């Protein structure tokens, strides 16, 4: 297949790029972080969103290369932003379950060292697919990651397997409430009760909360009413290139 052949060379031909979606504290408008979201700038097809080719990259055994490129670029971009005088507390990267094995911790460590980014400025978004594994190896890998000093976030919370035990088994800093629950709010479904319960649980476990996919003012107001103010959604901004992210940031002091 042509796309697969092209994908094999996308990294070396420098065809990947990152967009960033800001996470905003609605109480003061400050950007508290940004999630990096990879795109492939295909020479013929233009920008291809990740859901169309990340699964292919996983199948072809290319996800480590893609993942390492993403990590290094995200770290370098944040260092560069700060050098330009912008303030951004952290950048987060998505990690595929297939990318999550032995070499991953060393790759993160090396990306931090080479970029000079302080570890606490990097956040890795883990999915339930990774956390649900009971394997000791996964538990100790996550601990090793945490020991690098980075932040750990649980992405797409509540959409995967519904084992909650990993919330206490892993050293997590943050929980991201999935967009599907926010969509449920709009439909007036019982998701309201689920979201309340998730928030209460996250708070009692000491996890910071980010809500994904907030598009409507009503939804923001609902979350503010629940004491949750950090929002990642189109209401504030779509994912944008770095050049469009920096004007949204406060100056570094
Ligand atoms: O940006 P977009 O809305 O198209 O993202 C769609 C999906 O692609 C999201 O689920 C996101 O987690 C995933 N994704 C985006 N960037 C990366 C990446 O760098 N690595 C992996 N593994 N997945 C990513
Ligand atoms: O990694 P994850 O699956 O959480 O990726 C976040 C995805 O959610 C990205 O593809 C991003 O573009 C998308 N997203 C973020 N905010 C919104 C929103 O407000 N509306 C919609 N439709 N998508 C969103
Ligand atoms: Mn994510
Ligand atoms: Na998500």
UniProtKB/TrEMBL annotation:
Full-protein residues shown here are 520 to 772 of 796
What name goes with this protein?
cyclic-guanylate-specific phosphodiesterase
All residue ranges annotated as the EAL domain in the record: 1-253
Keyword hit for Hydrolase? no
Instruction: Name any one GO molecular function.
Output: cyclic-guanylate-specific phosphodiesterase activity
Query: Which keywords, in A-to-Z order, does the entry hold?
Result: c-di-GMP, Coiled coil, Membrane, Transmembrane, Transmembrane helix
One Gene Ontology biological process: signal transduction
Domain of life of the source: Bacteria
Q: Which GO terms describe its cellular component?
A: membrane
């Amino acid at each position: 297949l042509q796309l697969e052949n092209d994908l094999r060379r996308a990294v070396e031909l420098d065809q990947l790029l990152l967009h960033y979606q800001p996470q905003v504290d609605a109480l003061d408008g400050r950007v508290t972080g940004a999630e990096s979201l990879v795109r492939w700038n295909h020479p013929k097809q233009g920008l291809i969103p990740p859901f169309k080719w990340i699964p292919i990259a996983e199948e072809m055994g290319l996800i480590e290369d893609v993942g390492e490129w993403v990590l290094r670029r995200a770290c370098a971009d944040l260092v560069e932003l700060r050098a330009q005088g912008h303030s951004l507390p952290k950048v987060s990267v998505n990690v595929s379950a297939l990318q999550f094995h032995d070499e991953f911790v060393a790759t993160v460590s090396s990306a931090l060292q080479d970029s000079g980014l302080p570890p606490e400025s990097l956040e890795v978004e883990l999915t339930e697919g990774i956390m649900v594994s009971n394997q000791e190896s996964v538990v100790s890998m996550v601990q090793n990651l945490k020991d690098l000093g980075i932040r750990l976030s649980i992405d797409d919370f509540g959409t995967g397997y519904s084992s909650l035990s990993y919330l206490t088994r892993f050293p997590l800093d943050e929980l991201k409430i999935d967009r599907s629950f926010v969509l449920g709010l709009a439909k007036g479904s019982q998701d309201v009760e689920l979201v309340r319960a998730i928030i209460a649980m996250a708070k009692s476990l000491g996890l910071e909360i980010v809500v994904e996919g907030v598009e409507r003012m009503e939804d923001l107001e609902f979350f503010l009413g629940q004491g949750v103010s950090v929002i990642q959604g189109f209401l504030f901004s779509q994912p944008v290139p770095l050049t469009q992210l920096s004007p949204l940031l406060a100056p570094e002091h």
